[in-house]
Design a protein that fits this description.
The chain is about 40% helix and about 20% strand. The chain has about 140 residues and is of the alpha/beta class. Helix 3 links the parallel strand 3 and strand 4. Helix 1 packs across helix 4 and helix 2 packs across helix 4. The longest helix is centred in the C-terminal third of the chain and has 24 residues. The chain is globular, with a radius of gyration of 14 Å.
Length: about 140
């Protein structure tokens, strides 16, 4: 089974959603993991809600440090924010590395519904990007 590690700075929104989406879209052909260069210590409640809308429960996920994965082999390492791309260590065991920058939905402003709309948009962008990659 192939393995992917999705990296972000805080490991609270984008990388958590990507981990779950990758698992769902790949249908058992990949193991997916996520981590952060400076883990926030929590998974954002709006990320949990956005994923729940798709029937995916990430409420038990936890924010992890990239150091938990030191020395592990990965077929693919994906950074989903510019800070992670610059701050994360090189993974010598990675066969491929990609950078897919997505807007940080935690920075969304406005009403609760406007903020949720941003989480949904980013979730859907991540899903589309993963689907495109896995089709190739």
């Amino acid at each position: 089974m192939k393995r992917v590690l999705i990296l972000c700075t805080g490991n609270s929104c984008r990388s958590q959603m990507a981990e779950a989406l990758w698992r769902q879209i790949a249908k058992g052909t990949w193991e997916s993991f996520s981590a952060g260069s400076r883990p926030s210590g929590y998974v954002h409640p709006k990320a949990i809600e956005a994923m729940r809308e798709l029937g995916v429960d990430i409420s038990a996920y936890r924010s992890k440090s990239v150091s938990e994965f030191d020395g592990q082999p990965f077929d693919l390492v994906v950074t989903v924010c510019d800070n992670a791309r610059e701050a994360c260590p090189f993974f010598p065991g990675a066969k491929e590395t990609l950078h897919w920058p997505f807007f940080d939905p935690a920075e969304a402003t406005g009403s609760q519904e406007e903020q949720m709309a941003v989480f949904r948009r980013v979730r859907d962008e991540i899903s589309t990007t993963i689907s495109s990659y896995l089709r190739n």
